[in-house]
Write a structure and sequence with these properties.
The protein has helices spanning 69-75, 126-131; strands at residues 3-4, 31-32, 35-43, 51-58, 65-68, 81-86, 92-104, 107-116, 123-124, 134-137, 142-145. The protein is mainly β and 151 residues long. It has a single domain (3-7, 32-143), classed as Cathepsin D, subunit A, domain 1 (Beta Barrel). The strands form two sheets. Strands 2, 3, 4, 5, 6, 7, 8 and 9 form an eight-stranded mixed sheet that branches. The chain has a three-stranded antiparallel sheet with strand order 1-11-10. The two termini are 26 Å apart.
Length: 151
């Protein structure tokens, strides 16, 4: 199974208050202006009954996934520290991080998550994508099953 990925790399982690953001597409896996959105489920590792399905922008330029703080709070996911991040425009921000389980296409994988603040775009980063068993094909710009190799 192949899933479309974005046709160019973006780092839309935070939007200044004055910048207007276009609404996200409504169809899963749809490419609009080179962007790809997927629906995945975020699960509390300590209490798997607490879960929420949401739409993510798949971003090949993002290392970690960004999830809105209010949603992580409702799921009971607690921050375990904070990190400094550099945005595409060179701006430096600090965000808290924690850990969550992701579910997508009948697979699950645990990954660090960034507590998104107001204006931050929900992203599915590469660490989460690989934890789910997918990898970006850079030539075709498609998501493919990640070959599992030990050794």
């Amino acid at each position: 199974m192949l899933l479309p990925a974005s046709t160019f790399s973006l780092l839309p982690v935070s939007h200044p208050q004055k910048r207007k953001v276009a609404p996200a597409p409504t169809r899963e896996g749809t490419k609009l202006m080179g962007l790809t959105y997927i629906k995945a489920t975020v699960i509390n590792l300590a209490d798997p009954k607490k879960r929420a399905r949401m739409r993510f922008l798949v971003d090949s330029g993002a290392v970690y996934s960004v999830i809105p703080r209010p949603l992580l709070g409702r799921l009971g996911v607690k921050p375990c520290g904070s990190k400094e991040f550099t945005l595409a425009d060179g701006t430096t921000i600090v965000r808290e991080f924690g850990n969550a389980l992701f579910s997508f296409q009948k697979t699950q994988g645990a990954s660090p998550v960034i507590f998104g603040e107001k204006g931050d775009t929900p992203l599915l980063g590469m660490v989460s994508l690989e934890a789910l068993g997918y990898i970006l094909d850079p030539l075709r710009r498609e998501l493919r099953p990640l070959p599992m190799v030990l050794g």
